[in-house]
């Protein structure tokens, strides 16, 4: 009986690997298919946003701790990579630094702020974000208000950016799924629903929040680092801005908070439309995001992924 | 620093505390009754600032009077927002993710509307009072700050009376203590929530309008003040108006005296630094300190 | 008698200036069902919350198998083999019944890392408490009786030596209560010691080996159920309320 129960689910698990694998292969082959440089660039930016979105989703979606402070990790990652590359470190090694430094910072941020529950944590992260931006803007090492230009000394191809970002996004998806289907993920889900009850069953909420905060910070920081190498110029008011935090939060919420594909979908939609939106409706793009957020919260809390899921189910069962 | 300098700073801090209290109390009542953390508070403060600005520019209304007019105006706005959006949220006795994100979305919308109407240039309200000073011997007080303080203190007094003497106040206090029991004894929680939300937004509007007489502003005006309001709430606890007043006083003192030690470019980070200190040293806020004292006694 | 599984020494809790629990001491022997009764506000739940780590005692000590666990947080108490159920059930509503128990299997004393193994353990516990037919239902969608059982199943899945049951029969009908008490008896026979708080005196007397009566935060009496039933002080303070009311002399604080 046990095998009867388990065999189909194992098959299902394999089937679940097929589609993402196929997607990865297609995306990896795309640059050879003669895409325009502009489209390649757009995909690159999308991968960066998808990674950050997945990072936020680990803390906000899986664990229920909404943070308005992820620009801190994005910015720290960007500057870590920038400073390392500028000093002649191998860029891929610098991306590792771009993950580690924000993860370290996440502890210093989490130790005091995770004493606060739910929405209080959320507001405190606005403070973290503000304080970090103020400090970074005043430090000489960041180039201050005039910014920092990254000079890369080794030769490389433009398409390297694309593959780096693709690999990173794939890593973020894999990490998210591994966590979701592990003991660690079960603990996070329990904390999201009822912290006290989780603690009564042996989960240490404080330690678990700190741990997932670090993983989320590492992914987001790496996204910042990969973006910084591509942009070749960064400044504190940009990468550390509140707007960056807002974008990183909006993606998973719009896409479908708490699910891996929701966060990916949010990142893709955002990456694809953000530039067009800013270019065509510079006056009202915040208004559009805000309204979309209100609409999703009141009408479809599971986001675009939830909406697609419902449509799909309706199509499968004709009546 | 001479003693007179010290007195001057002390008075400046006291005067600042008044406006800080008004700014925070709106968030406190909404949280107490509805368990909603109103991030849109920042947006309504910004709107309050422009409300006073427009009345002053177009109708040459005294900005302080404009601030008082903001109360009924933003009260109605708050009731409307509650009717349109907030009442559709799932009911909960705990703060929910949805309510937090809804208010955040509303903040984004308000901010964008601000940019659409007024652009991103800094505005300020310069009235004849702006630079006037009151001399009390060696002590110099900005008369504008004094007037703002009086207006703020008046608002707090009215709130205290409304909470302690009226039907509405009793309902609010009942729901803050125990929503479920309040409902059982016949408190109309929908109606109370609607009025509370209106009042919370009204206080945001008044606070914004008063702040606009002191500082320049743009559509992102509310954010640093939202943070300060939050620090005050954590400091003072959520239970009472007097807690908020105490928290406001502490933050105002720390900010005012920090100019002696901290470079101006780091000033925006002061309130957050205070928050971290409070969280690390006094996890229960000032209220927690009192509780500990009592236990030792 | 071997070392008691739990020793409580002069445990005290003040709320403001009021003592909710004052100088309560007792020892729970292994494999007993140790009951607590007392009028409303006698301090039963406060006492429980301190032992379960939800409240920090103002004074006194709690020892588990001789090891001092005073003031330990709930998640570390679980690792020392102390688990609890709540008077007001608090399932993870967006998880299935099985997943609820799986969390306990992962993070309890067994500390199971592999999800499949934790699932198997959770299934066994569910079958044992008779909830396996609901395994794949969302916890929000089962009846109150089943939610109480789920509460118990989660606590059991942490593999406790000592189980604290707070009003596990509250809100259940007589038939469900009977079944729940049978389940407690089976848990004890399986080697788990139980501390049991219940408002319903009959339920306590039916199942407990040893009973303590609390009144105004202090120990009024303790002993075997039949001794307690005949104790004049207990009758005065608790069982004989109606009698003392007639005389117009209800005990006052």
Entry summary:
Chain A has helices at 2-29, 37-62, 70-86, 91-113, 118-138, 158-180, 183-193, 195-200, 205-231, 236-239, 242-256, 260-280, 285-299, 303-316; strands at 148-149, 233-234. Chain A has 319 residues and is an all-alpha fold. A two-stranded antiparallel sheet of chain B has the order 1-2.
Overview of this protein structure:
The complex is a heterotrimer of chains A (about 325), B (about 300) and C (about 250). Chain A has about 325 residues and is mainly α. Helices cover about 80% and strands about 0% of the residues of chain A. Chain A has one domain. Chain A is built from 14 helices and two strands; from the N terminus they run αααααβααααβααααα. Chain A has a two-stranded antiparallel ribbon with strand order 1-2. Chain B is an all-alpha fold. Chain B has one domain. Chain C has two domains: about 140 residues, 3-Layer(aba) Sandwich (Rossmann fold), CATH 3.40.50; about 70 residues, no CATH class. In chain C, helix 3 crosses helix 4 and helix 9 crosses helix 10. The longest helix of chain C has 16 residues. Chain C is globular, with a radius of gyration of 18 Å. Classes of the chains: A mainly alpha (about 325), B mainly alpha (about 300), C alpha/beta (about 250). Chains A and B meet through helix 4, helix 5, helix 11 and helix 13 of A and helix 4, helix 9 and helix 11 of B.
């Amino acid at each position: 009986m046990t095998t009867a129960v388990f065999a189909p689910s194992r098959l299902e698990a394999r089937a679940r690997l097929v589609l993402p694998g196929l997607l990865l292969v297609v995306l990896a082959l795309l640059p050879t298919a003669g895409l325009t440089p502009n489209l390649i660039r757009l995909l690159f930016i999308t991968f960066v946003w998808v990674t950050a979105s997945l990072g936020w989703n680990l803390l906000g979606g899986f664990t229920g701790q909404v943070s308005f402070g992820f620009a801190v990790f994005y910015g720290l990652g960007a500057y870590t990579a920038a400073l390392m590359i500028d000093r002649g470190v191998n860029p891929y090694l610098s991306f590792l630094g771009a993950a580690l430094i924000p993860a370290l910072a996440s502890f210093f941020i989490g130790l005091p702020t995770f004493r606060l529950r739910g929405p209080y944590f959320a507001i405190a992260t606005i403070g973290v974000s503000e304080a970090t931006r103020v400090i970074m803007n005043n430090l000489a090492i960041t180039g201050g208000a005039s910014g920092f230009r990254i000079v890369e000394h080794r030769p490389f191809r433009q398409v390297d950016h694309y593959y780096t970002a693709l690999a990173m996004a794939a890593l973020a998806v894999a990490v998210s799924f591994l966590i979701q289907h592990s003991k660690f993920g079960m603990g996070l889900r329990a904390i999201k629903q009822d912290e006290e009850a989780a603690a009564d069953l042996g989960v240490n909420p404080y330690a678990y929040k700190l741990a997932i905060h670090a993983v989320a910070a590492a992914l987001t920081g790496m996204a910042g680092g990969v973006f910084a190498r591509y942009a070749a110029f960064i400044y504190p008011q940009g990468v550390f801005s509140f707007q960056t935090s807002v974008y990183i939060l909006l993606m998973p919420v719009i896409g479908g908070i708490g699910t891996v594909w929701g966060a990916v979908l949010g990142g893709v939609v955002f990456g694809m439309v953000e530039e067009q939106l800013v270019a065509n409706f510079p006056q009202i793009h915040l208004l559009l995001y805000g309204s979309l957020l209100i609409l999703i919260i009141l009408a479809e809390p599971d986001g675009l992924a939830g909406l697609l899921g419902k449509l799909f189910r309706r199509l499968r069962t004709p009546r | 620093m001479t003693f007179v300098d010290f007195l001057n700073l002390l008075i400046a801090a006291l005067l600042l505390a008044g406006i800080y209290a008004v700014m925070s109390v709106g968030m406190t009542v909404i949280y107490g009754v509805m368990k909603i953390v109103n991030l849109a508070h920042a947006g309504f403060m910004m709107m309050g600032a422009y409300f006073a600005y427009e009345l002053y520019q177009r109708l040459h209304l005294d900005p302080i009077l404009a601030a008082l007019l903001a109360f009924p105006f933003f009260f109605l706005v708050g009731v409307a927002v509650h009717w349109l959006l907030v009442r559709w949220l799932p009911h909960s006795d705990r703060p929910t993710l949805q309510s937090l994100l809804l208010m955040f979305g509303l903040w984004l919308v308000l901010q964008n509307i601000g940019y659409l109407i007024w652009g991103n240039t800094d505005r300020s309200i310069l009235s004849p009072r702006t630079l006037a000073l009151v001399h009390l011997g060696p002590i110099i007080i900005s008369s504008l700050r004094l007037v703002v303080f009086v207006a703020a203190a008046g608002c707090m007094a009215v709130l205290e009376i409304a909470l302690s003497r009226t039907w509405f106040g009793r309902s609010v206090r009942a729901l803050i203590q125990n929503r479920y029991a309040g409902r059982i004894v016949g408190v109309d929680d929908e109606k109370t929530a609607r009025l509370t939300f209106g009042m919370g937004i009204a206080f945001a509007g008044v606070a914004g309008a008063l702040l606009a007489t002191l500082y320049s502003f743009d559509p992102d005006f509310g954010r640093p003040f939202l943070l300060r309001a939050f620090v005050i709430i954590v400091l003072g606890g959520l239970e009472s108006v007097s807690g908020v007043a105490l928290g406001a006083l502490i933050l105002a003192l720390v900010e005012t005296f920090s100019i002696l030690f901290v470079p101006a470019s780091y000033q925006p980070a002061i309130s957050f630094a205070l928050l971290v200190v409070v969280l690390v040293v006094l996890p229960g806020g000032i209220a927690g300190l009192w509780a500990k004292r009592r236990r030792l006694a | 008698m071997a070392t008691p599984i739990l020793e409580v020494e002069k445990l005290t809790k003040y709320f403001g200036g009021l003592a909710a629990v004052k100088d309560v001491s007792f020892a729970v022997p292994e494999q007993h069902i140790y009951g607590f009764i007392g009028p409303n506000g006698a301090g039963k739940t406060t006492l429980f919350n301190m032992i379960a780590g939800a409240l920090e005692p103002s004074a006194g000590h709690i020892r588990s198998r001789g090891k001092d666990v005073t003031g330990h947080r709930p998640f570390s108490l679980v690792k020392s083999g102390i688990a609890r159920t709540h008077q007001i059930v608090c399932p993870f509503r967006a998880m299935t019944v099985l997943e609820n128990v799986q969390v306990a299997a992962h993070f309890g004393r067994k500390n199971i890392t592999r999800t499949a193994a934790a699932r198997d353990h959770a299934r066994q516990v569910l079958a044992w408490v008779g909830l396996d037919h609901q395994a794949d239902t969302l916890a929000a969608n089962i009846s109150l009786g089943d939610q109480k059982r789920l509460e118990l199943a989660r606590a059991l899945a942490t593999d406790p030596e000592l189980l604290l049951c707070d009003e596990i029969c509250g809100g259940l009908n007589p038939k469900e209560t009977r079944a729940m008490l049978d389940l407690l008896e089976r848990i004890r026979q399986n080697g788990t010691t139980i501390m049991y708080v219940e408002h319903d005196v009959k339920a306590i007397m039916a199942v407990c080996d040893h009973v303590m009566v609390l009144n105004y935060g202090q120990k009024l009496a303790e002993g075997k159920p039949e001794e307690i039933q005949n104790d004049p002080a207990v009758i005065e303070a608790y069982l004989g309320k109606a009698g003392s009311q007639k005389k117009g002399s209800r005990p006052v604080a």
